Every structure is written in C-alpha cells, then in structure tokens.
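hey all, quick one before standup. I had two proteins in the batch that finished overnight and I want to keep them in one place so we stop losing track of which output belongs to which input. First protein below, input sequence then structure tokens straight from the run.
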Amino acid sequence: MPAKPNLYPTAFPELENRHHKAPERRLLEAILWRAVSDSLAGTPSDHLSQCDIQDAQAWLFERGGAYPFSFLWVCEALDKCPFRIRRAVKDLMRNGTSGGYRRADRKVPVPISVS
C-alpha cells in the first residue's frame, strides 16, 4: 500500500521562501485575505451574500485540524499566527478597531503585522 502524501504546508518548500513569493504562496495569501475581508463585510451586498459572510467566518473560526486548505493549514504555510489573526478579526467584528490593523480608504482592514 503506498504511503499517504504529506499534504501539510511544510511539504511545500517553495512556500518557505520569504523573499520570492511563489504563485502558491500568493494564492494562500489571497484565500486568507478574502476570508478576513468577507468576514468583516457585516452586511450582504451585490457580490457578497449573507451565506458567503457566514462561510468565511466559519472557515476562520473552525475548530478542526490542519487539513489541506483549512485556516490552520493556510496559516502554517504562510508562517502566520492563527490566534492573532482570529483575535484581530474578532476585535474588528466587535468594535471596528484592532492594534494589528489599520483602516484603508476601501473600508477594508489592511494587515500590518499578524505573525
């Protein structure tokens, strides 16, 4: 029986290079950014339903393990602290402020440092 492939982020050394952003790393950053952005949307719009917002929040705050493309897996691949990201998102959801984020003109939080 063949061995199961290692699907954890550490199996992808190209994601470890911090100076050159591989396409895979940019994809994971986009996934994380979109989930945070959708979670903080608050109200549905033409391009974002209430279901989309709830799905993004469920993905960010799920208690499951680090399976491929889970929140924990993406954070590990990007060398980000999932607890700090979750705390910042919760703070922004509660009162619109967080020490690790600043507001942009687009009314979407811009991460300064969450690792």
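OK second protein, same deal, sequence then tokens:
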Amino acid sequence: MIGLLAEKFLSDKELEKIKGMISMGKFYKMIKDEGIEQGIEQGIEQGVERRNVDIASEMLKDGMDVKVVIKYSKLPAAQVMALKDELDAA
C-alpha cells in the first residue's frame, strides 16, 4: 500500500532515491548483524583460550607433567612451556 502511494506522489527520481536508501538500510543491517556475529564468535574463542590457559596454569601449579598439561589444555607446547617458565620465575 505504501509503495502504491509513493509511486503516486513521488517522482521516479525520488522513488529511486528512497529505494536506494531502503536497500542501503538492509545492507547496513546485514553488515552490522554479520559484524555482531563475528564479534560474538571471537569473544567465545578468546574466552575458551583464556580458560585453557587458566586450566593449564592450575595444572602446572599442582605439579602435573607438562605433557599431560599440553594434552588436556589443548594449548601449544611452546605456550605451556612459557607459562611454566613464568610460574617458576614467580
């Protein structure tokens, strides 16, 4: 109904401008939604990574073998070794 009214009272140029604005609004929303989704995914990944580091740290503090920590924390060996060195220096 609104489309019919717009066609009746607006020039073709004005109508095209409005259609473009509507399309840009939809495009903006799509880009915004995608950005929010990516942000959520990154936040989850960072949270999981942080949790894995926390778990590895606690395991190392409890004296668990580095190989076991690597296996269960899913962290790279170099990262676990650096964490161990950091804890040993403290």
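Flagging for whoever picks this up: The two ends are 72 Å apart (CA to CA). Residues 9 and 33 are 34 Å apart (CA to CA).
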